[in-house]
UniProtKB/TrEMBL annotation, chain A:
SUPFAM superfamilies tied to this protein: SpoIIaa-like
Superkingdom field: Bacteria
Annotated family: Belongs to the anti-sigma-factor antagonist family.
Native source organism of the sequence: Parvibaculum sedimenti
GO terms assigned for molecular function: anti-sigma factor antagonist activity
PANTHER family assigned: ANTI-SIGMA FACTOR ANTAGONIST TM_1081-RELATED, ANTI-SIGMA FACTOR ANTAGONIST TM_1081-RELATED-RELATED
Protein name, UniProt field: Anti-sigma factor antagonist
One matching Pfam family: STAS
Ranges of residues in domain STAS: 2-111
Length: 113, 166
């Protein structure tokens, strides 16, 4: 199981996964994220400030969650990505697709603009 | 088990202590026999974190080693043993003179991650694909990878110089 909490702030869903998104926890991350995005809202921030590890299985879930949000008329962006995790996003080219923000507030502002 | 497939990595007494489900912590070495199950990735990462902390590895070095092993073991569990039940997967990780040397052995389908061609990853959200990304991450973070196919086993040797990681 991946530990994850969430918050709905106005019309934005903030997902807060924690610790390690590896191949053995990615499925749990995907199931929880899918259920929350389907329940709405479809504007989504994934707050990575409590995540200290991600593998390509985790990146795949970020990608599928972004596509799900987009098809529901929303969008997805990231906040609080720490340096090791950021390196994985950079190598994969994901950093430019999703946008990275220091804080949830900045991420929310980017979704509204 | 390692001796049967021609490894010169481990004296017999050390091998004898390794069970199918357990990690053995010797001074500078981890040896694990892995089941063909994705949950094993979590067990390996836990063991690497404990090993890394015990030996003063930096968080960045632990992260990179975990990432490489996660991606490679995930590939083996996902693709190497389709329709095939006698699965042997073994991992050895050693710290020697500031260098991490890891050896991953499996008797699945031949797969050379060193030379495998990586598909284009695509650019926008809709075109973006994940296949091949794991191998790209492994190649980015390990200083050297050596692959061989010996006696029905894939053998992948990884080297990571801790001084270069910071």
């Amino acid at each position: 199981m991946l530990e994850m909490t969430h918050e709905i702030r106005g019309d934005v869903l903030i997902l807060r996964p924690a610790k390690r998104i590896d191949s053995s926890t990615a499925k749990s991350f995907e199931e929880q994220a899918n259920a929350l995005v389907d329940a709405g809202p479809a504007k989504v921030v994934i707050d990575f400030s409590a995540v200290d590890y991600i593998s390509s299985a985790g990146l795949r879930v970020v990608l599928t969650t972004a596509k799900r949000a987009k098809s529901a008329g929303g969008a997805l962006t990231l906040s609080g990505v720490s340096s090791n995790v950021k390196e994985v996003f950079d190598v994969s080219g994901f950093a430019t697709i999703f946008g990275m923000h220091d804080t949830d507030e900045q991420a929310i502002a980017a979704l509204k603009s | 088990m390692l001796r049967d497939i021609g490894s010169n990595a481990a004296p017999g007494a050390m091998v004898a202590q390794t069970s199918c489900s357990g990690a053995v912590f010797l001074s500078d070495k981890i040896e694990m026999a892995l089941r063909n199950d994705i949950s094993e990735v979590g067990r390996v990462l836990d063991a690497i974190e404990a090993f890394g902390e015990a030996h003063g590895l930096s968080p960045k070095a632990i992260f990179r080693l975990n990432l490489a092993l996660d991606e490679l073991i995930t590939n083996i569990v996902s693709y190497a043993f389709e329709g095939h039940s006698e699965c042997h997967i073994e991992l050895t990780v050693e710290l020697r003179d500031g260098v991490i040397e890891a050896l991953l052995i499996d008797n699945g389908k031949p797969f050379n991650p060193v030379d495998a061609e990586l598909p284009e990853l695509g650019e926008g959200l809709d075109e973006r694909r994940i296949g091949g990304l794991g191998i790209k991450l492994v190649r980015t973070h390990m200083d050297r990878l050596d692959y061989s196919r010996e006696g029905g086993f894939n053998r992948l040797q990884m080297h990571m110089n801790l001084n270069a990681v910071g």
